[in-house]
Every structure is written in structure tokens, then in C-alpha cells.
Amino acid sequence: MIQHNYKNKVAVVTGGSGALGGAIAKGLAQEGMNVVILGRTQSTVDTMVDAIQSNGGNALGVTADVLYKASLEAAKEVILERFGKIDILINAAGGNVKGATIQPEQTIFDMRMEDFDTVTQLNLKGTVLPTLVFGKELAKQAQSSIINISSISAQQILTRVVGYGASKAAVENFTKWMAVEMAQKHNNPIRVNAIAPGFFIGEQNRDLLLNTDGSLTKRGETIIANTPMKRFGEAEELISATLFLSSDASRFVTGIVVHVDGGFSAFSGV
């Protein structure tokens, strides 16, 4: 029988001090993994590490920028000095920028390419570069796993978020490409998969989906109407999918995208 073997594995979570990355990190730590919280801001990284450790988990906080190789290489040395290996990489760093979002009174021709470039760098390069830096260590392990965080917008066309959707679609393409590359060229192949969250409330989209009194905005109402489960997701609901893709239970699973979206991607709206 296949064992889950969570204990003593070392998981690096980029964007681990954010809402979704943080929830995933806490879930991995609760299962006995050594979790590395990697983020740009020392204070938020420290806050997440304290939250994990106060709940009995083991965590290490490392500040680094996913867009700079030297920063990631330095972080890798700190991690290896502490744990001696890396088994799992969760690429949760990413997000959107206002200038790459088309406002209701705008058209695509109002978008600044500089902002489109920024969100593409954040989501695509911010996934590819950590994969290249940390992947060399993962390849040394008998069973290792990379999990990228995509979005429902990668496959379902959502109005307004043109830069975000395009960059997350590229993340899914890279996920599948990398899965094939690793399986064909390594004796100990790294499994590479992705999770595509549906609509979860975070600081970046709160004002877009909720009014100040907590009621739904017009866009929020449209989303809930097209989500069969009739609610937004909760960050903790990403943990089980992550644990499955992290464990030996999924050792023959690579190159897939798991949707955690309350049925949004399955619903035609009719």
C-alpha cells in the first residue's frame, strides 16, 4: 500500500506569507513537513513562521524575490544549510496589477504594455525561475514534486483580467511542458502539476468582489451565480489537493491541472 510519507519532507512555498500560499504552508506543516516560507517582506514572512510554529509545526522563513536568480540562489543555500535537501516546491507567488486590468469604462486599447509585462513577469517568470533554481535539488530526491498555482482564468475567459489570465495560461503550459521534460530526462523525475483555484477572497480582489458592508458587488454576484456551489472558496480548501500532489500517493500523476473552484469551470451558465 502506498504511504503518504509527509513527515520530514522539506517544502518550499514561494509567496508563502500570502493568503493562499500561507494556508497551503500551514496545511503542509500540520502533516509534519518542514516548511520554508519564502517571501519578499521579512515582517510578513516572520508572522507566518510564528503562526506555524505556535501550532506545533516546523517552519523556516527566508526572504527572497522570485524574479531575481541571485536572490533565489542565496535562499537555496540557507535552506540546504538548515535541512540538507528540498523535496517539494509550491510556486504560490504571483498576482495581478491594476494597470493590466481593463476597467468597465476602458477597452483593451487603454492598457499599458508596461503593466502587462509586469504581471507576466510576476506570474510566469515568478514560476519558471524558482523551478529552475530549486528544481536541481528536487531532482536529487527519489520522489519530488513541483506544484504551480494557476487560476480558473487560465482556461475560462474572464472579462477585465487580460494580463492575469494570459500569464496564468502560460503557467499551465509551462507546467505540462516541464512535466514531460522531467519524466523523459531524469531517472528520478520531478512530478510537475498545477492547482487552479476558482474565486477566493484575498486582499487583491476583495474590493472587486465585496462592498465595504460585505455584500456582493455586481461582479461578485455574477461569479456566485455561475458557481454551482454558490459561494467563494476558503483558502484551507486548497490544502487537500496540495497534499495529494505532494505525496507518493500521486507518484504516477504529472502534467495535470486540478481545479478547486466549486464547479465554476464545469458550468456553462445555463
Strand count: 7
Low-confidence stretches: none
Q: Please give the largest β-sheet.
A: 7 strands, parallel
Bulk shape: globular
| Number of domain units | 2
CATH level 1 class label of the largest domain: Alpha Beta
**N→C terminal distance:** 43 Å
Going across the biggest sheet, name each strand in turn. 3-2-1-4-5-6-7
Find the CATH superfamily of the largest domain. Answer: NAD(P)-binding Rossmann-like Domain
Tell me what the structure shows.
With 270 residues, the chain is α/β, with parallel strands linked by helices. The chain has two domains: 10-198 and 237-256, Rossmann fold (3-Layer(aba) Sandwich), CATH 3.40.50; 205-232, no CATH class. Helices cover 41% and strands 14% of the residues. The chain contains eight helices and seven strands, in the order βαβαβαβαβαβαααβ. It has a seven-stranded parallel β-sheet, sandwiched between helices. α1 (19-30) crosses α8 (239-246) and α4 runs parallel beside α5 (162-185). The longest helix is centred in the middle third of the chain and has 26 residues, at 113-138. The chain starts with 9 loop residues before the first strand and ends in a 10-residue tail after the last strand. The mean pLDDT is 94.
